[in-house]
Design goal:
The chain is of the alpha+beta class. The chain has a single domain (2-168), classed as Histidine kinase-like ATPase, C-terminal domain (Heat Shock Protein 90, 2-Layer Sandwich). The protein is built from 5 helices and 7 strands; from the N terminus they run αβαββαββααββ. The strands form 2 sheets. It has a 5-stranded mixed beta sheet with strand order 2-4-5-7-6, with helices on one face. A two-stranded antiparallel sheet has the order 1-3. The longest helix has 18 residues, at 25-42. It starts with a helix and ends in a 5-residue tail after the last strand.
């Protein structure tokens, strides 16, 4: 229920009302990985962070944390047992690019265009087993877009999935 309320609030809020400040992505990604470390251990998932210090995004710190948390959590949940989840961040001109990638089973191409829709599940039966509301990626997309960013997903069946987020670059904090 909380996810539905969050999504409704995000959809109703004008883009220019989103809080924006410079957010250190290395520190934030490190914090998120620490919060999911126990879950990663249960799945025997290795976590790798490759975000240089000083790479900062301009955005809402709570929103960016929620985006990273959701993507990393999904990568652990739907990736393969004993696999790896990688968080990479870099600055490219006036933007920062953050990727969250896994080496899990991947997602078939026909599902990718609908992945960010409310309640859409690639495998409804398996998704229900693992919990969730089917709203997480819709929330992620709205959060990213509310901060002037964009999100994309690429996936190879049998090789893994990568979510790529672009946000405006912030000044080093």
């Amino acid at each position: 229920m909380q996810d539905l309320l969050t999504l409704s609030e995000l959809e109703a809020r004008p883009v220019d009302e989103a809080e924006r400040e410079s957010v250190d992505l290395a520190a934030l990604a490190g914090h998120v990985v620490e919060t999911v470390r126990a879950r990663a251990r249960e799945q025997e998932t290795r976590m790798t962070i490759d975000v240089s210090p000083g790479v900062c995004a301009l955005g809402d710190p709570i929103g960016i944390e929620q985006v990273i948390q959701n993507l990393v959590d999904n990568a652990i949940k739907y990736g393969k047992r004993g696999g790896e989840v990688r968080v990479h961040g870099e600055r490219t001109a006036a933007r920062v690019v953050l990727t969250v990638a896994d080496d899990g089973p991947g997602i078939a191409a026909e599902h990718l265009p609908r992945l960010f829709e409310r309640f859409y599940r690639v495998d409804a039966g398996r998704s229900r087993e693992r919990g969730g509301t089917g709203l997480g990626l819709a929330i992620v997309k709205h959060l990213v877009e509310s901060m002037g960013g964009a999100i994309q997903v690429t996936s190879d069946v049998g090789r893994g999935t990568t979510f790529r987020i672009e946000l405006p670059a912030g000044d080093p904090v």
